[in-house]
Every structure is written in structure tokens, then in C-alpha cells.
Amino acid sequence: MNSHPARDAAWIALVGDRLARAGFCLLGRFEPVPDDAVPDIRPGRETRAVLVVGSLSNALFEIFATSPEAADDQPDPLDRFTRRILSDLAASEGLGIVFPFEGPPYHPFQRWTLRAGSFSRSPMGVLAHRAFGPWAGLRGALLSAEPLTASSDAGADGPCPTCLEKPCLSACPAGALSQAGYDVPRCLAYLRADPAAPCHDGCLARHACPFGRPHAQSAEAGSFHMRSFVG
Who's near 130: CB < 8 A, 6+ residues apart? Predict the structure, then answer.
């Protein structure tokens, strides 16, 4: 195992570059408190900092599509690809790693991501980022036993509180979105009843969001994720 570099801005940039070359991105970081329910890296080795790892679908999908997991016809190919890549990176940097698809019980990834900053809750059930809008997927969390010396964006607001028009609410043809939240059963029923619905190439409500449009999913990536969702 490599010796551990200082957990400073240069190290964070190095990890961010390694993630980007694998199709992932570093969404933010924070120092956990007990209420965050962040696990220890292992018994007796406390987590002092959390780095939230995500992806932008188009960048990740291009790399994932050439992976062994994408071609082996086994269940959950993207989750397995994610586990392999991020586990290797964590081991090489002396970090712990947890994933949003582990469970039950599941780790509170949305809560952690909000703690990292730049995100807000959206009516669509996903978090929205100041730059990426609703297009950043949550893929994992790297756990460090050493604190980070670099400052973070923790506490910064995401875009949804400033959005007055909320076009996502009216863009959903299933009527599954409202100020009360996202009606998942209604969304699924609509998709399963109409295999030709345009939503099968990607969520129309997400595409209506005015934030992060340069990062919107391609139809190919959108179709993959919607097939996984519909089951």
C-alpha cells in the first residue's frame, strides 16, 4: 500500500483527478459529527473526514460502457463497476469506502451530500447541485482517518430555494411531482403502462430543470438508468 500523503488541497486534487479519469467526480467533503451516522473505517479507526463521490452520467457511461461489468449480462452492472473502481482507489490511498447501494440498512447519502455543500433537495427526489443541477449521481463515500486541511463548501446552498418557477413540477407527464414531493409508485405505474413514453429516454422533469443543463443525460445514458429504475 502507498504511504499516505497529507490530506491537503494537493492530495484532494490528486484524488479528484483519479476519480475523473475513471468517470467519477468529487462532489464535496465534510467532517462528520455523531448525528451523521458515518461508520468507522474499521473498529478502532475513526472516520475524521468524508469525501462524497458522484458522477455525471455521460462521462461515467462512456467509460462504464467498455467495462467487463457492462458486457457480462449479470445483475447490477453499474453498481459492480462502481464498487470495483472505487474500492481499488480507496485501498491505494488508505481510505475506507461505503456505497449508497449497500443495505438495508442504507447509509444516509443524501444527508451526507447536503452536509458537503452546494446541494439542495429538489421536488424530483434527487438532490440538485449549483453547477450540475439534478444530474449528479451519488456513487460512494471515501472515509479518511486523517482530517482534511483544505476548506470545503459545507454549508453552501444548492439551487432549488432560489428557483421560483419550478418547471420540473409541470413537466412530469405522470403527474408524479408536486410541492409535497415525488410519488414513486405513480411514476413507475406510468412508465410500465406506456413503453413508448418519452420518459424512457430520461426523466422529463429533470430535463426541464434550468440548472446544470450542460450536464444533462444523453438519451443513451438516460435509457440505461430508466431501465434500471423500472426493472
Answer: 118, 119, 156, 157, 158, 159, 211
- Cβ(199)–Cβ(173) below 8 Å: yes
Q: Which whole-number Å values give the CA distances from 142 to 27, 98, 109, in the listed order? A: 11, 7, 12
Looking at the chain, which runs of residues are DSSP E strands?
25-30, 49-56, 96-98, 119-121, 127-129, 136-144, 177-178, 181-182
Q: What three-state secondary structure class fits 71? A: helix
Sign (positive or negative) of CA dihedral 213, 219, 220, 224: positive
Q: Of all helices (H) and strands (E), which one includes residue 35?
A: none
**What DSSP designation does 45 have?**
B
Please list the residues that pair with 45 across neighbouring strands. 42
Encode pLDDT of 89-142 as tens digits.
Answer: 999 999 999 999 999 999 999 999 999 999 999 999 999 999 999 999 999 999
Contacts of 225 (CB under 8 A, 6+ apart): 57, 202, 217
Any idea what DSSP says for residue 12?
H
